[in-house]
Amino acid sequence: MSQDEDWLIDDSHEAAEENTGPAWHVLIVDDEPDIHRVTQLALSGIDFLGRPLKLHSCYSGKEALEFLAHTTDIALILLDVVMESEDAGLKTARAIREQLGNRQVRIILRTGQPGVAPERQVIESYDINDYKAKTELTRDKLYTAVLGTLRSYNDIMLIDQQRQMLDANRRGLLKVIEASSVIFQQSSIEQLAQGVLEQLQSLLFFEQDALYVVVNGGVAALTDDDAVRVLYATGGYSELRGKTLPEADLVRFRPTIDEAIQTERSIYADDHFVGFFKTPHGPVNLFIIEGPVSLSHGDRDLIELFCSNVSIAYENLLMAREVEETQRTIIYQLSEVVEYRSQDTGQHIRRMAEYSYLIARAMGLDEEEANVIRTAAPLHDIGKVGIPDAVLLKPGPLNADERVIMNRHAEIGYTMLKGAKPRILRMAATIAQQHHEKWDGSGYPQGLSGEDIHIAGRITALADVYDALANKRCYKEAWPTEEVLEEIRRMRGSHLDPKVVDAFFGILHEVEAVRLLYRDAGAAH
Fold first, then answer.
1. Do 15 and 43 meet the contact criterion of CB atoms below 8 Å apart?
2. Distances in Å between the alpha carbon of 360 and those of 158, 232, 366, 410?
3. Global pTM?
4. Active-site residue (options: 132, 134, 278, 384)
5. Which of 283, 317, 351 is the last residue before a domain boundary?
6. Is 74 within the bounds of a domain?
7. Which sign, positive or negative, has the C-alpha torsion 331, 407, 518, 360?
8. pLDDT tens sequence across 14-46
9. Which candidate in 150, 448, 508, 511 could, as Cys together with 452 as Cys, close a disulfide (CB 3.0–4.6 Å)?
C-alpha cells in the first residue's frame, strides 16, 4: 500500500449492526480505479440508522453528471477534485447545484493535492459540505465524515418531507376553501346537494358514483318509518334523483348509515364512504360515495372540514328558506287584503304567481330569478289600496276621469315598495310600477316601450291580461278560452312582448292546468 493510501488503515473496533432499512446511496467520483476499490473496502459493512450503504462509481465529472441526471436518490457524493482537469471536481460540484438544481445531495471533496484549491474558498463558493485531503482520512475519519454527512442529508430530507406535507396540506385547504366557496353560492337545497357531490369528487373521489341523501327521522338509527330521500346522485345512481333510496341499496348501506347516525360522524368502509352532517334545525344529511376508499389521515381531516362547511351552508339555506317563506306568507296576506277590497279572490294572486313563474322559466330565466318573480307578482296591484271605493268597485266601465284615478295604482304601489331592501320587495316594486306598460309605449305610468320595460313587468303584464280575460270580474264575465287566446295573439307586438307571448303559447297546457287548479269558487270547469 502506498503512502497516499494510508487513509485505509483500519482503526475501527466496532461491529456492524444488522441492516433493516433501504440503502443510503453513495456515489464515488474519482479517475483512479484503486480509489474506488479501497473506498468500497473502507465503507463495507457500515450502516446508519439501520440502513446499509450502497456504493456507485463514476470515473469522471462528465460521467457523474450524466449519472446524476437520471438518479435522484443519491445521498452523498465522494468527489475527487483533480480528474480530467485540475478543477474537474469543482466544476462538477457547481454543475450539480446549478445545472441539475440538486440542493439536497451532500458533497465531500477529496483530493490528493490539497494545495490545488484553498479549502475555505471551495466550501463557500461551491456549496461543499466537507473538504478532505486523502492523506488525512483513516477509516475511522472517513466513517465519521460519511455518517455525519448522511445525518445532515437525513435531516434535510425530513425537513423537505415536512415542507411537502405542509404544502400538500396547504393545497388541500385551498381546495376545500375553493370547494366550500362554491357550496356557499348555492341558492337551494337541491343545488347544494349537487354542488357537494361535485366538489367532493373533485377533491378526492374523482369519478366514483355518489348519492346525497336526507334521512327524515333517524335519531339513533334507521327505522322502517324513516324515509331516505335522494336529493342528488351521480353516475349509475343518477336516475334516483328526487326519489326514495331503493330497498336493495338501503340494505347494503344500512349498517354504515346506522353507524354514521349513531356516532354522528363520517364512516370510512372498505368499499364506500358515508359523509355525515346534521344541522340543529334540519334532518340528517349523508353523502354516500361508492367504491374503494383509501384516504390518508390528512385527507380525512380535509373531508371533515368540508363536511363542517357544508353543514354551515345547509343551515344558512334553511334559514334563508325560512325567511323567504315568511316573506311569501306576508306578501300573500297583503295581496289578499287588496283582492278582498276589490272583491276579487285570493286565487287570482296565486294564478298570477304561477303564470309568471312558468313564463319566466320558459323565457330562459334561471330558477332563482323565476322564483323571485313568482313571489313578488302577487303584489302587482298593491297600489289599489290607495284607490277610492267608488272607482275601485264600480260595476261598469270607467269614464276618463275615473280611469286616470285607477291608473294611479301603479305609481302608488311602486311608491309603497321602492324603499324596501329585500330583493323580493324591490322586484315587487318594479312589477307594481310596470305591469301596465305596453310593448309599443302606449302604456302607463311611464310610457316605457320594448326592452326598457323590465322583463318581470313584461311577463306579469301578459299574466295579468290572461287572468283578467279568462276569469270573471265585478265589471265583466269570463271570456271563452279561444277568444282569450285570440286576443293575446292580437296584442303580440303592441301591448305584449312578442317573445313573452311565444313563451306563453309554448307552455299553454301548463298555464291552463294552473288556471284549473286555482279556479275561483263557482267558476265553470
1. no
2. 61, 25, 8, 21
3. 0.52
4. 384
5. 317
6. yes
7. negative
8. 444 455 678 999 999 999 998 999 899 888 888
9. 448
